[in-house]
Amino acid sequence: MMPAMLAGHPREDEVEFSAIRAQGAGGQNVNKVSNAVHLRYDIAASSLPEALKHRMLAWRDQRISSEGVVVIKAQDHRSLERNRRDAVERLRELILEAAHVPKIRRATQPTRGSQQRRIEGKVIRGQVKALRGKVSGRNGE
Predict the structure, then answer these.
(1) What is the pLDDT of residues 55-114, one digit of tens each?
(2) Which helix (H) or strand (E) holds 16?
(3) How big is the CA angle at 14 (ends 9 and 19), to the nearest 5 degrees?
(4) SS3 helix, strand, coil % of the chain, rounded to 5?
(5) 74 with 37: CB under 8 angstroms?
(6) What is the pLDDT of residue 5?
(7) No. of H helices and E strands in the chain?
């Protein structure tokens, strides 16, 4: 799927944010300010193309719940707004990753020339190894 087709995704009205307290170091600020963000995005209710919805729901990703809701927690930045932007960017990357359809590999046969070169190399290697026998003495020992 083309990234240009997904330019407007995720739409702002389809994303739900909730402010939570961040974990980890940060002193007093981390204990009194809700700067972390939980982003929730319902895949089934979104305006994504149906094929992309099915591909995302079939994924075994820990960010996607069994109900088909993407939950992303962003707490890297001190400001709530930067954490919101970070969460939306990570959701956008997840959608683009799901939109990428891998190219189907077609099995091919090796060419006759490459087969001959391989066999010639094996013959030469066998000859080198054959020369590694014990050196016999003058009397045929």
Answers:
(1) 888 888 888 888 888 999 888 888 888 999 999 999 999 888 888 888 999 999 999 999
(2) strand 15-20
(3) 110
(4) 45, 15, 45
(5) yes
(6) 55
(7) 4, 3
Token pair, residue 19, equals 């402010």
Amino acid at 115: Q
CB 38 within 8 A of CB 20: yes
Q: Could you identify the residue written with the tokens 């939980």? A: 38
102 preceded by a cis bond (ω within 30 of 0): no
Q: What span, in angstroms and rounded, lies between the C-alpha atoms of 54 and 51?
A: 5
Q: What is the pTM of this model?
A: 0.64
The DSSP line for 32-60 is H---EEEEEEESTTS-S-HHHHHHHHH--
Of 70, 72, 90, 15, which is closest to residue 47 (Cα–Cα)? 15
Q: Give residues with Cβ within 8 angstroms of 96, minimum separation 6.
A: 3, 6
- Which of 102, 74, 77 shows the shortest CA–CA distance to 90? 74
